[in-house]
């Protein structure tokens, strides 16, 4: 077993089943995970926990995933961000964030776990 620290992944979705399932998949692949169920909670947890990667649904009440990602990246510039959504208009929201200088990956739901893991590895390599 490696002595290298496990990568910390903060997972956020207002759908608890989705968030908990993603955490289970990632923890089975060696990641240390923390789950929150809303954008505001994610920002507060990131402030205390300092994740290496933030994975979030785009569409959530109160604070959406894009705004939470912007706040988290402001606090933790090296934190990778992977957003996901089943909403077709989410690509436009992410595109506007990119136009404002924020670089986030977007993964369309539904996605197979292997695609999630591939995208995470690509973010880690960047």
What is the typical, i.e. mean, pLDDT? 90
Q: Could you say what the CATH topology is called?
A: Rossmann fold
| Helix-strand topology string | EHEHEHEHEH
Number of helices: 5
Distance between termini?
Answer: 25 Å
* Radius of gyration from CA coordinates: 13 Å
Q: Structural class, judged by helices and strands?
A: alpha/beta
Q: For the report, how would you describe the main beta sheet? A: 5 strands, parallel
Question: What percentage of the residues does DSSP assign to strands (E)?
Answer: 15-25%
CATH architecture: 3-Layer(aba) Sandwich
Percentage of helical residues?
40-55%
Question: Which regions are unreliable across 5 or more consecutive residues at pLDDT < 50?
Answer: none
What's the CATH H-level superfamily name?
Answer: Response regulator
CA-based shape:
globular
Kindly state the number of beta strands.
Answer: 5
Strand order of the largest sheet: 2-1-3-4-5
The total tally of domains equals 1
Can you walk me through this structure?
The protein has about 130 residues and is α/β, with parallel strands linked by helices. It has a single domain, classed as Response regulator (Rossmann fold, 3-Layer(aba) Sandwich). The chain is built from 5 helices and 5 strands; from the N terminus they run βαβαβαβαβα. The protein has helices spanning about 15-30, 40-50, 65-75, 90-100, 115-125; strands at about 10, 30-35, 55, 80-85, 105-110. It has a 5-stranded parallel beta sheet, with helices on both faces. Helix 1 (about 15-30) links the parallel strand 1 (about 10) and strand 2. Helix 2 (about 40-50) packs parallel to helix 3 (about 65-75). The two termini are about 25 Å apart. The model has no long low-confidence stretch (mean pLDDT about 90).
């Amino acid at each position: 077993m490696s002595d290298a620290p496990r990568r910390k992944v903060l997972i956020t979705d207002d759908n608890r089943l989705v968030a908990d399932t993603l955490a289970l998949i990632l923890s089975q692949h060696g990641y240390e995970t923390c789950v929150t169920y809303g954008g505001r909670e994610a920002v507060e947890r990131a402030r205390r926990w300092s994740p290496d990667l933030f994975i979030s649904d785009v569409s959530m009440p109160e604070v959406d995933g894009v705004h939470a990602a912007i706040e988290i990246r402001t606090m933790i510039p090296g934190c990778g961000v992977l957003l996901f959504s089943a909403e077709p208009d989410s690509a436009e929201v992410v595109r506007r964030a990119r136009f404002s200088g924020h670089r986030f990956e977007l993964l369309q739901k539904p996605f197979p776990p292997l695609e999630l893991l591939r995208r995470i590895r690509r973010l880690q390599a960047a």
